[in-house]
Design goal:
Blueprint (H helix, E strand, L loop, with lengths): L1 H21 L7 E12 L4 E11 L5 E12 L2 E14 L3 E11 L1 H4 L1 H9 L4 E12 L7 E10 L6
Antiparallel strand pairs: 1-2, 2-5, 3-4, 3-6, 6-7
């Protein structure tokens, strides 16, 4: 009996969230690329850490279990992928998360290697877009997008 009650509550919750999404009651979280740092750099491989700030404008918490993302630097695709996570953003609050990206810019995007190198003394425009996969069965993914400039002078080598 308790198992059936839990199932009914989960289904009702999913339907409520889907209805809220369709009625524009779920507001998109604001996600901003906060910092780009280099963890490792050599000719064969570069490891970058992308640090993001996320703001939940909703009056309920967001339980995020997967992040799908794409990042462009100076108009060129820098990184994209999916990352499992355990990110709970409280209602009407801010949080942050990091994604580690392993690349070989010399082989895959030599122009980006120059952008990162030359951008160490200034700002580089970036574009970020993606989706959060919520920890609620059948709930819709919540999209996000942001663009701006990031200062690379704070990169840690």
């Amino acid at each position: 009996m308790q198992g059936m009650l839990k199932l009914i509550l989960i289904v009702a919750g999913c339907q409520w969230i889907t209805a809220c999404q369709q009625a524009n009651l779920i507001h998109r979280p604001e996600v901003r690329l906060h910092e780009l740092s280099i963890e490792k750099i050599d000719l064969d491989e570069q490891t970058f850490v992308l640090s993001f700030d996320v703001k939940n404008p909703n009056p309920f918490p967001l339980a995020i279990r997967e992040i799908r993302y794409g990042v462009k630097l100076d108009g060129q695709r820098f990184a994209s992928g999916e990352s499992s996570c355990e990110l709970d953003v409280a209602a009407s609050s801010d949080s942050s998360f990091e994604i580690t990206v392993d690349l070989n810019l010399l082989r895959t995007a030599p122009d980006l290697l120059f952008i990162v190198r030359d951008g160490a003394s200034g700002e580089i425009p970036y574009a970020l877009e993606g989706r959060f996969v919520m920890d609620i069965p059948t709930s819709p993914e919540v999209g996000f997008a942001h663009s701006g400039d990031i200062r690379l002078s704070s990169i840690a080598y």
